[in-house]
Write a structure and sequence with these properties.
alpha/beta, Urease, subunit C, domain 1, 2 domains, 8-stranded mixed sheet, 4-stranded parallel sheet, disordered N terminus
């Protein structure tokens, strides 16, 4: 066993041990970005799973505290993903047959190693979702905290397409009438979902689109039972009608056309959130186009062996880049970035997500750091991008206990070896990850992946 792997195992073992409520830890001398602004070099005092103090620790706090010197380090809140998936992949394959407790925990632990401490799994979750969510909520050693939409609500014979998504035992509700849509929402409310997910997309005309009367009934019923609604879309027309219908979250970027001033205004006026997921299309060509990245530890540690082996094959790289879908994917990325810039300038609330985990090329952990980089190409400063991925992403989910380094908040923290405000790529230089007041990881590692 590698020495580093052994040490990580010991860290995980100790992290799983219950901490006394009075345990105090002082993270000293780090430069802190609190999720909104740069606080400079301060101490962060933890007690149990919460932040007790931000500033210079006093003598009383130092007495009997465990002290960790983070001189030269940079500390920020753990990242919050508003749109990912868990339990959907195994090596080169994907589908609902992988949705087990162990696979979900595997994915949540990978998110955690990459500094993502809260994950919303936005649809295609199996029947075990609620029990797994409850288990991991109480044990930081099991990975990022889990929220989600349960299975979600899709279109009859449409999105999410069962064959393409490998849904052999399709868990997705597919109502054919408005009354069935309302019943599906109520059933998911009883099951304890955190949000309702709708798929409103014909995938380029290949599948039936969910009818407006279906999604309008679902949105209305969700609001009646105090649930918010996130909608998978691709095109401007569906996004505009969903905003008119009162949808709370547009869960993917608009990629077919430039967003209209009228829609920007409507989203701003209604408080509709927008999650661009730029990486979702870029992932179709990114790794074939940049084979040298596969040798970098930050990406390599995120890949199962079978995926890494295939992606390093020059023949696969050439075939992937020659695919008929690649020109369309490139156009989609360019339009997505253009629309993201327009929405940022229009003051629309932006959330953070990548669709990571839905398919093998949507790489858990790496995708989130790539998305931060893409946001800066759309005009965000590094601080603005980090705010979206921390404080704003927490606000989207109504989680007022995280996303900010402040007194009383959860001690979900990411510690870096270099300044992300100077270069967003420095988010990849992970030194440590803390969750609920415990150090749970020292970042991506040589974890053994399945073939």
């Amino acid at each position: 066993m590698h020495r580093r792997t052994l040490m990580l195992g010991l860290i995980a073992t100790f992290a799983a041990l219950p901490a006394a409520a009075t345990d105090t830890v002082i993270l000293e001398n780090a430069r802190v970005f609190d999720g909104r602004r740069d606080l400079g070099i301060v101490d962060v005092v933890l007690q149990g799973e919460r932040i007790l103090h931000v500033g210079k620790a006093n003598d009383a706090q130092r007495r009997d505290a465990r002290r960790i010197d983070y001189t030269g380090k940079h500390l920020l809140p753990g990242l919050v993903s508003n749109h990912s998936h868990v339990g959907n992949t195994g090596g080169l394959e994907h589908g609902d047959r992988f949705y087990t407790r162990d696979v979900v925990v595997r994915d949540l632990q990978q998110f955690q190693r990459y500094g993502v401490t809260t994950v919303t799994s936005l649809g295609m979750n199996g029947d075990a979702f609620a029990s797994i969510r409850a288990e991991v909520r109480n044990d930081p050693g099991l990975g990022a905290q889990l929220y989600g939409a349960g299975a979600g609500i899709g279109a009859v014979a449409g999105a999410p397409p069962t064959q393409i998504m490998g849904l052999a035992n399709d868990p997705v509700a597919r109502p054919a009438t408005p009354d069935e849509a309302r019943a599906a929402v109520r059933a998911q409310k009883v099951a304890g979902v955190d949000v309702i997910k709708l798929w409103v997309d014909d995938l380029g005309g290949r599948f039936p689109m969910m009818a407006p009367e279906i999604y309008r009934a679902a949105i209305d019923e969700a609001h009646r039972v105090d649930l918010r609604v996130a909608a998978h879309i691709h095109d401007h027309a569906q996004a505009a009608d969903l905003v008119d219908a009162g949808v709370d979250i547009i869960a993917h970027g608009i990629r077919d056309a430039a967003i209209s001033p009228a829609l920007v205004k409507a989203m701003k006026d209604k408080g509709t959130w927008y999650i661009p997921t730029v990486n979702i299309d870029e992932a179709n060509y990114l790794y074939a186009e940049n084979p040298a990245w596969l040798q970098t530890p930050f990406l390599r540690h995120a890949l199962p062996e079978a995926v890494a082996t295939r992606w390093q094959d020059p023949q696969w790289q050439a075939q992937q880049l020659a695919g008929a879908n690649i020109p369309g994917a490139r156009k989609a990325v360019a339009m997505n970035l253009r629309n993201l810039r327009t929405l940022r300038e229009g003051g629309v609330d932006i959330g953070f997500g990548t669709d990571s985990g839905a398919m093998p090329q949507r790489v858990i952990g790496f995708a989130e750091h790539r998305e931060l980089e893409l946001m800066t190409t759309a005009g965000f400063t590094s601080a603005q991008a980090l705010a979206v991925a921390t404080s704003e992403a927490a606000r989207l989910q109504g989680l007022n206990d995280r996303g900010i380094v402040a007194v009383g908040k959860r001690a979900d923290l990411l510690v870096l070896d270099a300044d992300p405000l100077q270069d967003i790529l420095n988010t990849r230089r992970i030194h440590a990850v803390w969750q609920a007041g415990r150090q749970v990881s020292d970042g991506p590692s040589d974890v053994t992946h399945a073939p």
